[in-house]
Amino acid sequence: GQNIDQPTEMTATEGAIVQINCTYQTSGFNGLFWYQQHAGEAPTFLSYNVLDGLEEKGRFSSFLSRSKGYSYLLLKELQMKDSASYLCAVAYSGGYQKVTFGTGTKLQVIP
Amino acid sequence: DTEVTQTPKHLVMGMTNKKSLKCEQHMGHRAMYWYKQKAKKPPELMFVYSYEKLSINESVPSRFSPECPNSSLLNLHLHALQPEDSALYLCASSHGLAGGPGNEQFFGPGTRLTVL
Lengths: 111, 116
What we know:
The complex is a heterodimer of chains A (111) and B (116).
Chain A: E1 3-5, E2 9-13, E3 18-25, E4 29-37, E5 44-49, E6 53-57, E7 60-65, E8 70-75, E9 84-94, E10 96-101, E11 105-110
Parallel strand pairs in A: 2-11
Antiparallel strand pairs in A: 1-3, 3-8, 4-5, 4-9, 6-7, 7-8, 9-10, 9-11
Chain B: E1 4-7, E2 10-13, E3 18-25, E4 31-37, E5 44-50, E6 53-57, E7 64-70, E8 73-79, E9 87-94, E10 106-107, E11 111-115
Parallel strand pairs in B: 2-11
Antiparallel strand pairs in B: 1-3, 3-8, 4-5, 4-9, 5-6, 7-8, 9-10, 9-11
């Protein structure tokens, strides 16, 4: 099976920077996704990494190290609306390609 | 149109009822998914359809029966459910099977199911 770990909860201040980590163990790695999910809503896509390095997209950046089985999502200039759960999801090949979601990190942004 | 729609939004059913959840997308995506999500847990994959054929069944009990009538529609037929099946059921679609750039999943708003 796939093993994906994220911190359960984090708190950060409005305007600050926060880094949400994700570690994984998988065979047939085929990319890592980050999704945002507000309470009671569906997940929405934030970023995708398949090669090592940093992908930047506005206030959000995502980093991947395949050799370490490690990724992080960096959120800059935090806004109150960034309070949500952030899900790390690993794509892997097992006959057919699948995606397994991590348990998610609930981020609370405080004034 | 970059939306995945799901109906109904809420559903309450008894253990002897038969009901169906519906999902629709018009993005030309060829992969569609059903997930189950319990409170404070991540989405759990149930079924994957690729080109209207069932590709993955994650050992889901037979009281859940998926159907893909065409490339835009995905149904989940429910029969003789148990109270522990109460959850948010999410439908998603992607251009191709998950993995690879451009294959991120687009999620519908979900159906919140309560089984009494």
